Amino acid sequence: MRSGAYESVRTYRLIVGMWVRSTMAYRTSFVLTALGNLAATGLDFVTILLMFSHITVLGGFTLAQVAFLYGTTSTSFGIADLLLGSMDRLGRRIRDGTLDTLLLRPAPVLAQVAADRFALRRLGRITQGLAVLGWALAHAGIDWTPVRVLLVPLTVLCGAAIFCAVFVAGGAFQFWAGDASEVQNSVTYGGNTMLQYPPAIFARELVRGVTFVVPLAFVNWLPALRVLGEPDPLGLPGWVDFASPAVAALCCALAGLAWRAGLRSYRSTGS
Amino acid sequence: MTVPVSEAATEAVTDTVIELDGVEKVFDVRRKAGPLRRLRTQVRAVDGISFTVPRGEIVGYIGPNGAGKSTTIKMLTGILNPSGGRIRICGLDPTRDRTRLARRIGVVFGQRTTLWWDLPLRDSYELVRRMYRIDDARYAANLAACVELLDLGPLLEVPVRQLSLGQRMRGDIAAALLHDPEVLYLDEPTIGLDVISKTRVRDFLRRVNAERGTTVLLTTHDLTDIEQLCRRVMVIDHGRLMYDGDLGGLHAVGDSERTLVADFARELPPVEIEGARCVKVDGPRQWLAFPAQASAAPLVAAVAAHYPLVDLSVREPAIEDVIARMYGEDADRT
């Protein structure tokens, strides 16, 4: 008997592969939508640039340092959005009954929902995030040590994993809450926007919330403080800057449990 | 497309493909009963159903809207878990072995497609092939057969969303059969189809059943489907099995009547005859109802002996009427 993880990845790849092929059948359309995605997400950063045309420091961070925050969270979010961006369609699938058809196939439901309508155009956001991150790394005046070099890619990957967990948990929530895609969006898109700015400009309670409740601070804030050599507004011990992998693993495990519980609930209530 | 040949000994054991024992499904329904108050009521959508279906049978599963037909199908496929009772399909428990069972059953929902809406049929089938791990030779043979019999050739490159209802239904049926399922569930497979499409779908199902020995369970509102396909009918209402038997037996249960239409030489008052009652008079023509099980011969003889009979015909009861009468009795109860 093959393992569930193997089956999930296989199913995901099968469906994604098919969507990519079908997208590529209309190459011009793909290039245009990807460019559109790139431009739309790029406007976010223009906002920050405009802000810094009037100020030189925001919450103790320079433009290049804010760009570092922006680049890490955008790339992380972009990866999660590319992989699992279709999760917010789950609510609609439950309402119109098309989730049932996924349960009829010999494949894990989560992989089928996640891979549905895989949109390669979302590469636009990742490209834009990486470009800003590259610029930030060159201009933020980082005092490079081997630990800091390692911490940058680790931050991006763990951040992506945490966002993925939020996407899955948000999907699971929709099993109970009819259409909760807006709640999910407030955490994912809202969180992404928040993480583009230094933690010091937000109220302490909010920073605590995204540290301990929805652990978005581990996406980039805490490791970024270490990379940039900035003080932590919450005064947490230094090791939490390296806790992102553990937090990411925990989030994914919890999201997986929530998904199972949600699906079980669906199969017993049918709505 | 060959029927797997099993030895006689195993045949006896695996003969029953669908097995339900006291299956129940209870839903909690919450509805508003004021600005804050919510009333919670329990709805017994399926209320203790038991039946078995042997391999190779075509069974019609009929009942009015909301009778519990779709809920039953959802439990048989593993979409919904039963609240009580026991289900075995091909020896598997749909609740626990959903994905293993999925490889052995095919499902067609008339109201919604199981195909990928934005993809051409061919891509959908290819995905089905890989998802179900169908080996190449078998896939090629099954696809070729479906394409030929369901006339899908010109449709293979068309995205599912552009297909007409009848075309989509044929596409869905083909998709459900590519992996050689042992059981095929059809939930209203002919709903909304024109006469030609209906005939084509029925012919195809009959052929699949005959050639592959596929067990078929179908729900429908179209009683012609039942008359043309099913040797056995189950009628469900209010979550309970009201009837389980052959089509003919429905008449006995429903107290149905046949009608003798008699043309007399002249206008007569309503005739009075033992074993029949006059239900309608129109000039010299009269309609005499008599029990469906009774023979028409003695009645005809009696009428001819006492009245100036010119011509006659006997009308069989429509199943619609029989079932309507069963539902009617049931509706009075609620």
TrEMBL record, chain A:
Keyword Membrane: yes
Alphabetized UniProt keyword annotations: Membrane, Transmembrane, Transmembrane helix
Domain of life: Bacteria
TM ranges: 30-55, 67-85, 150-176, 242-263
Pfam families: ABC2_membrane_6 (PF06182)
Protein name (record): ABC-2 type transport system permease protein
Organism lineage: Bacteria, Bacillati, Actinomycetota, Actinomycetes, Kitasatosporales
UniProtKB/TrEMBL annotation, chain B:
Protein location: Cell membrane
Keyword Transcription regulation among UniProt keywords: no
GO biological process, one term: response to antibiotic
SMART domains: AAA
Nucleotide-binding keyword on record: yes
Domain ABC transporter: 18-263
InterPro entries: AAA+_ATPase (IPR003593), ABC_transporter-like_ATP-bd (IPR003439), ABC_transporter_ATP-binding (IPR050763), P-loop_NTPase (IPR027417)
A GO-annotated cellular component: plasma membrane
UniProt entry keywords in alphabetical sequence: Antibiotic resistance, ATP-binding, Nucleotide-binding, Transport
Major localisation: membrane
Membrane topology term: Peripheral membrane protein
Domain of life, per lineage: Bacteria
GO MF entries: ATP binding; ATP hydrolysis activity
Record-linked PANTHER family: ABC TRANSPORTER ATP-BINDING PROTEIN, ABC-TRANSPORT PROTEIN, ATP-BINDING COMPONENT
Protein name: ABC-2 type transport system ATP-binding protein
Source organism (scientific name): Actinacidiphila alni
